[in-house]
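Researcher: Good morning. I'm working through a list of sequences from a screen, and I'd like to move beyond sequence-only analysis. For each chain I'm collecting a predicted structure so we can compare shapes side by side. This is the next one on the list. No need for commentary yet; just the structure.
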Amino acid sequence: MRPGAFIMIIIVLCFIVSWIIFEYFLPQFVKDGGPVVIGLMVLTMLDITFIIERSLTLKKARGKRSQVEFLKDAMGAIRNNDVTRAVNLCNSQQGTMANVLRAGLERFQTIADENLTSDRQVQEIKRAFEEANALETPLLERNLIALQTIATIATLVGLLGTTIGMIRAFAAMANEGAPDAIQLALGISEALINTAGGLAAAIMGIVAYNYFVNKVDMFTYAVDEVAQEVLAILTGRA
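Model: Good morning. Structure tokens for this chain:
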């Protein structure tokens, strides 16, 4: 399924669930926030959905077992010149780290019997690492922009609800004679509820975005470090 189609399906499902919750399960004081509350609920559910999706993706990217144990076994095999065993370990481990290492190791096996200079071997293996890394990185970064966008939109939607609520409040105060206390209270309530909802969704999105960006950066840095070490061992420069 294309990422765009996936996101559209998620948005529609979140809207349906949000409308049902708004109509049948929310307390009245929250419903007083008006229809904008539905939009804020949709954004909050999207936040939660992408947080779960990113968590599962990063867990899958780590592979089937501990990366420390995997790297210990794989690096031991590489140092013992048992590249075939290292490739088999990568196939069993799976995940981003294993996929990148396997690409470099397989390229090394391919060029091992060719009469290439040391520098040419380094270039070939390094290119294999870079190509594999270029394929894996977008999978790690997918939907991170969505989290950042949701945080921005949630703030603006909350501000919209606040503005609408204040319009209602000032309209109640503009009545001739005594202000309409009920409408005034409803307007202020609508403004504050939407403000709180927008801030909550925005905070969740910003925190999640920064957390996952940091995780991805640390992950890609670790992959680069391991790739450089493996390259040095394979080419006899370690």
